[in-house]
């Protein structure tokens, strides 16, 4: 069922002005979005990525924004990871400089790259995030010793605030159904066509691109990647972010195929050298029918109520389920919601303590 063919690199061995510490890639079908360690870029798909670009050029659709301001917290957060596009926004994981803080997911407007909001992951590490366009669930993980993926249920409230309650863990299994542990996870991306999840494991012969069925957590295939991760004890070539997009139509100069993987070469003078690897994966081609043996790839979404409201006329206040004030709500006045937006739309005010951005009274 799953076959692939390596098509080569484009750009190849290129310092193009934004290759230094390149971390991630995604697309909205019309534009590329790339994350360096501390910069976010947007290029039209029609832009030749081999050309050198050192600054934004809005007239040509090339935008850039830096990791700074309140998101960076004066350097406390200093590392963007592999990103994803969903519903008009670009979601970028941002890791702290040390383990004193939890990693964040920042939400930018895709049209302008304006930072809108951010919220937190459950751990200091957040090397990648990927959003399943069918369920709206966001997945991420730790970097090493990954035996399960973290699943979140993000919600954009009032078009301005990102909430991101944790949903559940998704255990990983190999092709035989045995528990699977992955190392050095650098990137992840969903296919909008098949629903499969593509993960990047930067571990030489044991890594490459892991193809996961998110309905079961089971690996259905592995795409090996030929690269040299070390030289004389130093990190040389690193696999980074990944995206899934059918580009056989020729819209992107020099690029074909459906699966696209970033690799950078850290050795040598100047900026890191970019190798953008491309793979033909017939299963992800718009010209091929989906095989019935693929089965379901839909993530099971637990029917969790994440918010509790007090419908007493004198209160009319909504809380997260873990708020200490929930226990003081009389059973007759208690009502549960899965969506915060729904509760706000019905006239509830956010709790001052657990939902302060939505507290207005």
Throw out a few tags for this protein.
361 residues, mainly beta, Lipocalin, 2 domains, five-stranded antiparallel sheet, four-stranded antiparallel sheet, 2 helices, 29 strands, globular
Structure summary:
This protein is mainly beta and 361 residues long. It has helices at 69-72, 340-345; strands spanning 5-9, 22-27, 31-36, 39-44, 63-66, 77-80, 84-86, 89-96, 104-109, 115-120, 130-131, 138-140, 148-152, 155-157, 161-163, 166-171, 185-190, 197-201, 208-213, 218-223, 230-231, 234-235, 237-244, 259-265, 273-280, 307-310, 317-320, 334-337, 349-350.
How would you describe this structure to a colleague?
This protein has 2 helices and 29 strands. Strands 6, 7, 8, 9 and 10 form a 5-stranded antiparallel β-sheet that branches. A 4-stranded antiparallel β-sheet has the order 1-25-24-23, with no helix packed on it. The protein has a 4-stranded antiparallel β-sheet with strand order 2-3-4-5, with no helix packed on it. The protein has 2 domains: 5-294, Lipocalin, CATH 2.40.128; 307-358, no CATH class. It is mostly beta strands. It starts with a strand and ends in an 11-residue tail after the last strand.
């Amino acid at each position: 069922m799953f076959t692939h063919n390596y098509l080569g690199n484009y750009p190849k061995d290129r310092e193009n002005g934004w290759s230094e510490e390149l971390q991630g890639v995604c697309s909205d079908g019309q534009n590329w979005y790339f994350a360096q360690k501390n910069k976010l870029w947007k290029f039209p798909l029609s832009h030749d990525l081999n050309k050198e670009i050192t600054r934004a050029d809005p007239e040509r659709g090339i935008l850039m924004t830096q990791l700074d301001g309140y998101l960076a917290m004066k350097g406390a957060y200093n590392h963007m990871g592999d990103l994803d596009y969903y519903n008009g926004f670009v979601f970028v994981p941002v890791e702290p400089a040390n383990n004193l803080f939890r990693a964040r997911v920042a939400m930018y407007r895709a049209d302008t790259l304006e930072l809108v909001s951010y919220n937190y992951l459950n751990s200091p590490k957040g090397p990648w995030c990927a959003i399943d366009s069918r369920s709206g669930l966001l997945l991420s993980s730790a970097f090493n010793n990954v035996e399960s993926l973290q699943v979140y249920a993000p919600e954009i409230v009032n078009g301005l605030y990102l909430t991101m309650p944790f949903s559940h863990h998704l255990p990983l299994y190999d092709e035989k159904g045995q528990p699977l542990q992955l190392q050095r996870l650098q990137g992840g991306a969903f296919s909008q066509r098949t629903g499969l999840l593509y993960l990047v494991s930067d571990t030489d012969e044991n890594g490459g691109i892991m193809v996961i069925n998110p309905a079961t957590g089971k690996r259905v295939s592995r795409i090996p990647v030929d690269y040299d991760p070390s030289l004389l004890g130093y990190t040389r070539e690193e696999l980074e972010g990944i995206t899934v997009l059918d580009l056989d139509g020729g819209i992107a100069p020099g690029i074909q195929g459906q699966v696209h993987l970033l690799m950078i070469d850290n050795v040598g003078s100047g900026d890191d050298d970019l190798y953008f690897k491309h793979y033909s994966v017939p299963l992800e081609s718009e010209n091929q029918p989906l095989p019935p043996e693929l089965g379901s790839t839909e993530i099971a979404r637990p029917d969790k109520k994440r918010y509790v409201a007090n419908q007493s006329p004198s209160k009319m206040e909504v809380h997260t389920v873990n708020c200490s004030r929930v226990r003081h709500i009389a059973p007759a006045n208690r009502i549960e919601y899965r969506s915060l937006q729904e509760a706000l739309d019905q006239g509830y005010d956010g709790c001052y303590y657990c939902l302060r951005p939505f507290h207005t009274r």
